[in-house]
Specification:
7 strands, two-stranded antiparallel ribbon, five-stranded mixed β-sheet, single chain, elongated, 59% helix, 433 residues, Heat Shock Protein 90
């Protein structure tokens, strides 16, 4: 049965693991003490009307056992304990001046049960439970000693039980508030991550538009001028080139409409050439001017590579160096770009900074690893980013050079590369330096 079915309103307040074991052991020990003490009280300080052998011990255990029950079912413990107040009418103090209408052990047990009820139940349950028990206690006091007004001990008990009510309710409300805050923070973090991912995808889409639009424009120009550049074209060939030109022009128009949706209001719609591998040296130089020493190793790379792959490699290096400047400023850094087996490999590693490093992912405007992972995934590549075994941080990306392979697969999940760690890839990539 779920907590909701039982009416549990603890707000996630639970004792688990060793804490639950400790509470259970403590409850059992307290029950044993209260039961044995209660049995002694019934034989020394109280007399039982119609006394039979063993009744005092059984009665004392009845009033002590709810302490253990309260660990699991506090309301059930209350329902077991409070009826014993009525049964206690057969128990009378030997000394007529004794103000307590109940065994002192029963009153201690009730304080524990009231605290448990307040911790696990709402005020709609805890307050009526306290009122009923207090009213029953005062009624019993008058019943036991009709000629004497309830003494200060009764007042003290009512106040102590009220204190248990307030303490338990306060703890429960604080726990509920903390749980709600933690849940809201978790949802906020997820929403922030989702928003950053969508923003990065929109940014990638805008850059992709510039790349594809360039090629589409070339198709339009070549198809439109084919009949003037090529001699001897028959009517069917001219009509085919005209159809290609019109189709490409329509596609380009649709792409521009899509771009209007993707571009944020107020941004400059001017198209600029997208950076590629040729811009990496200038990127390294600007990073060195910022105070971070960077060594660049450019291996044998084909003269012509897909624009998407070149742009992705540039963005990976750009964001990695930005992270180094932000979180490990001044740490020696190494950038390696090489091609092997029809794949472009990009590796950026930095040593541990001298001071305390800042977190890699910040909550600011930067997209950080989120953008790198999304870019590499869209390019059907692989990415691993994380701390290095010898200290510092490393980013390793592998991108396909064949245009047909890009987009065929979503690639591995972000942060994973077929189970390989950053340290393993770091060692493997050093051969390209």
């Amino acid at each position: 049965m779920t907590d909701e079915a039982r009416g549990d309103d603890s707000g996630g307040l639970r004792a688990t693991g060793w804490l639950r074991v400790a509470l259970l052991v403590g409850a059992v020990a307290l029950t044993a003490i209260l039961a044995s003490s209660g049995a002694v009280f019934t034989s020394t300080n109280y007399r039982v009307v119609g006394y039979t052998a063993g009744f005092g011990t059984l009665f004392a255990f009845w009033q002590a056992a709810p302490v253990v029950i309260a660990i699991f079912r506090p309301l059930l413990a209350w329902c077991v304990l409070v009826p014993s107040f009525v049964v206690s009418l057969v128990v009378r103090p030997i000394d007529p001046s004794e103000p307590w209408p109940l065994l002192p052990t029963a009153l201690i047990a009730y304080l524990v049960v009231q605290l448990a009820v307040s911790l696990r139940r709402s005020l709609l349950v805890a307050v009526p439970a306290w009122l009923l028990a207090s009213a029953a206690l005062v009624t019993l006091a008058v019943r036991h000693q009709p000629r004497v007004a309830p003494g200060p001990d009764i007042t003290l008990f009512v106040l102590l039980s009220a204190l248990m009510l307030v303490a338990g309710t306060s703890i429960r409300l604080v726990s509920q508030a903390r749980n709600r805050l933690a849940e809201e923070e978790h949802l906020t973090a997820e929403e922030r991550h989702r928003r950053r991912l969508l923003e990065e995808r929109a940014r990638i889409a805008r850059e992709m538009h510039d790349i594809v639009a360039h090629h589409m424009s070339m198709i339009v120009v070549q198809a439109s001028t084919a009949e003037y550049r090529l001699e001897g074209l028959n009517a069917a060939a001219k009509e085919e080139f005209t159809s290609i030109s019109e189709t490409a022009r329509e596609s380009l128009t649709e792409m521009r409409r899509l771009l209007k949706v993707l571009r944020e209001e107020g941004t400059d719609p001017q198209r600029v050439p997208q950076p590629g591998l040729e811009r990496i040296p200038s990127l390294v130089e600007s990073t060195e001017r910022a105070g971070t020493p960077v060594r660049l190793h450019l291996g044998q790379v084909p003269d012509r590579i897909p624009e998407l792959i070149g742009l992705t490699a540039y963005r990976v290096v750009q964001e990695s160096l930005s992270n180094v400047v932000r979180h490990a400023s001044g740490a020696p850094t190494e950038v390696t770009v090489s091609a092997e087996d029809a794949r472009l490999t990009v590796r950026i590693v930095n040593d541990a900074p001298k001071g305390k490093p800042a977190p890699v992912e910040s909550t600011g405007a930067g997209h950080g690893l989120v953008g790198m992972r999304e870019r590499v995934r869209l390019a059907a590549g692989e990415l691993v980013a994380g701390p290095r075994p010898e200290g510092g941080f490393g980013v390793w990306a592998s991108l396909p050079l064949a245009p047909a392979s890009a987009g065929q697969s979503d690639g591995p999940s972000a942060g994973q590369t077929n189970g390989r760690s950053v340290g393993q890839l770091d060692g493997r990539s050093k051969g390209h330096a």
